[in-house]
Amino acid sequence: MGSKEIDDMESILKGLPSYAIYKQFSELRDIQFCQKHFTNLLNLQDKNSNITEFCNNISGIIQHLYKNKRENYFRENCQYVNFYIYDRIKIMFPPDSALINSILNNINIEWYLVNKNLLEEKCSFKYYHKTDEVDKWNVMKIIYDYKKNYNYIKGKTNDYDACIKYGKYLNKVKKIYEIKKSECCDKDNGQCGIYFFECKTIEHPDTLLQEINCPALATDNSRETHADGNKDSSDNGSLKTSMVAISPFIGILASFFLSYKFSPLGSWLRSKIQGINIKDIPYNEDTEELLAYESENDDINTNNIPYNISYKNI
């Protein structure tokens, strides 16, 4: 991405609009187009070089532009193509000025013909033969990506975690923005327009940092957490209050049971209760006779009863 600090954040910023465009570019390939139009570039290939892979990739991008050669598409994506190519050169090749200059010269020559014959001269490759060309493009890429990501970040920071993530990104962009603003906007030297740095259309990162307002979201998040904690505490408090209220009653029941079961007082109470029950049963002569009859039957041994089964002839 141009800055190591921002490069290290790339894994958490993949959802941003600019990264979606670069991801699409990275997946494009056209081997035949590369072999036909970039033969001089392929001649730079050696066993330790990524020239062929790089050539196939940028050839796929050119074909993609050709198939979508609408005015709006060129206007929206051609700048990204330039930033992407310089970013890939930085990533794929060692910082050897001789090799990089050879790569850029070959791309510049071949792209001129492709732009004229296929792209209707609407998407040129920018190369100004400066010794620090790759570094300049990658620094400007950060600012241009920030411009593209601005509204997305503004609308996607409704929660605290997202705000913190994008806040870190904006603070790193801010350092680069302030340097380039001083070079490109505060001085009337006009040297930054070639890198698509448009002073009037790029808001200061501080403006967006104030709008997303992470401290306010942190306060809201804290309030929600506190409210959830209060609810749990209230539920626990109600349970504790209920337990306190019924605990004495449970204690009384337990004490009464133990006293009744094991203490001398319990034995005395049981004897009293049993005595009362016996005395309270009313006397009934029929009942007495029935009990006597049942008692007599209980004394009879059924094994001593002889069985005499008689049969009658039919």
Automatic annotation (TrEMBL):
Superkingdom: Eukaryota
Pfam family name, one: Plasmodium_Vir
Protein name: PIR protein
